[in-house]
Amino acid sequence: PKPQPPVREEVARLSTLLADLIRQRDPKASVAPSSKGWLDAIRLLLDKNKRTEAEVEHVIRWCQHDDFWRKVILSAPKLRAKFDMLYAKAGKPKGNADDFYSRNGM
User: Fold this and answer.
1) Can you tell me the distance from the alpha carbon of 100 to that of 19, in angstroms, rounded to the nearest whole number?
2) Cα–Cα distances in Å, from 34 out to 12, 69, 83?
């Protein structure tokens, strides 16, 4: 088998962020942020779907604070599958995502 390229820092960070937010609500949740499936889904969102790191982070944080979507988005592959719909509902990130979420208690 050919060696796997190293995981990009932003891909690992976004995958871990999703897993951490899911675990905050359910410490026993079955999450796999370092699995090939999760990492591939995040990488493809960035590379194939041409989403920015800020857009992906914004949608991850938004969906995990939404009463309905946080019950649906329990994995990175599901996030990628529903991303366009989630992005339309969440709206574009305004300015720095960290500032937005800290101002809104998220």
Assistant:
1) 20
2) 7, 22, 20
Angle at 14 between CA 9 and CA 20, to 5 degrees: 120
- Three-class SS of 29-89: CCCCCCCHHHHHHHHHHHHCCCCCHHHHHHHHHHHCCCCCHHHHCCCHHHHHHHHHHHHHH
Q: Per residue in 5-40, is it b (16+ CB within 10 Å) or e — as a string?
A: eeeeeebbbbbebbbebbeeeeeeeebebeeeebbe
User: For the segment 34-44, what is each residue's pLDDT rounded down to a tens digit?
Assistant: 999 999 999 99
The tokens for 85 are 């719909």
- Model pTM score: 0.84
